[in-house]
Amino acid sequence: MKAQLDHLVVDVHDRLDEGERRWKRLGFHVTPRGRHSLGSANNLVIFDTDYLELLGWEGGPPARADLADFPIGLNGLVFRDWENASTYALMLKNGVPVQEPRSFHRPVELEDGSIAGDARFTTTRLVSRTGFDGRTYFCQHETPDLVWRDAWRAHPNGVTGVARVVIAAADPAKPMAMLNAMFGTVQDGRLPLAKAVVEAVPHAALGALLPEAGGRGDYLALVGFHVASLAATEALFTANGIPFTKAAGKLAVAPAETMNVALEFTA
């Protein structure tokens, strides 16, 4: 099966407003708030072929236990799906613990407050915490034109898409074995995607950027982004007062600035 990144999920719990504010300060264009038929709410950061989702709930008790069950931070790795029934059957055949496909929708609000229509999705989810301490699933878009709007793809920080996703793991072979069971294309401990890569590294390898890593299980720890100009991204961070480090042709931003996700930016 073709492995293509659809989106990444940052679980922000009931701090959606804070998440939206922080990611705008990082130079991302953040979409207006969406509200799912499942009871959750989100804001999106749309790129050329993938996106990042800030997901949570608005006030009161959490509408979804599968979100409240995780700490704030990156916990959703989502792959593109084209035919959910076939995907479900293939995962079962490959011995991957998977749940039956589920459909839902949300109205798509534009900046002027109007509604462009209902975005509709069907997701096929692995059993929670399969392979690592997070959520992995497939997403089939019934209305992709309502998600990938051209006006939402341009970001002041110059980001064009996801470059890599890093899982911090006690045994990196474990999450990669799960991904290989799904796709059969893991090579040298990495899952190549169309424009990105998923890899797992020992906790110690991220220790300098994630000093708390040793106290957590296997989890999605870092997202790398492609940018059009590293100098322009650096200038925006400086102007917005974003602390960052610079080394080996990369800019790095610590989890304290991002709702508990380590970020890196490369040209």
Give structural notes.
17% of the residues lie in helices and 37% in strands. The chain is an alpha+beta fold. It folds into 2 domains: 5-152, Roll (2,3-Dihydroxybiphenyl 1,2-Dioxygenase, domain 1), CATH 3.10.180; 159-266, 2,3-Dihydroxybiphenyl 1,2-Dioxygenase, domain 1. Strands 2-3-4-1-5-8-7-6 form an 8-stranded mixed sheet. A 7-stranded mixed sheet has the order 10-11-9-12-15-14-13, with helices on one face. A hairpin with a 4-residue loop joins strand 10 and strand 11. It is globular and about 50 Å long.
Descriptive key words:
267 residues, alpha+beta, 2,3-Dihydroxybiphenyl 1,2-Dioxygenase, domain 1, 2 domains, eight-stranded mixed β-sheet, seven-stranded mixed β-sheet, 37% strand, globular
The gist of it:
Helices cover 17% and strands 37% of the residues.
Average pLDDT level: 94
What is the H/E order?
A: EHEEEHEHEEEEHEEEHEEE
Biggest sheet, spatial arrangement of strands: 2-3-4-1-5-8-7-6
How helix-rich are the residues, as a percent range?
A: 10-25%
Contiguous uncertain segments of 5+ residues: none
**Oligomeric status of the shown chains?**
single chain
Give the end-to-end Cα distance, rounded to a whole number of Å: 29 Å
* CATH uppermost class of the largest domain: Alpha Beta
Structural class call reads alpha+beta
The coarse silhouette is: globular
CATH architecture classification name of the largest domain: Roll
Overall tally of structural domains: 2
| Count of alpha/pi helices | 5
Number of strands: 15
Please name the CATH topology of the largest domain: 2,3-Dihydroxybiphenyl 1,2-Dioxygenase, domain 1
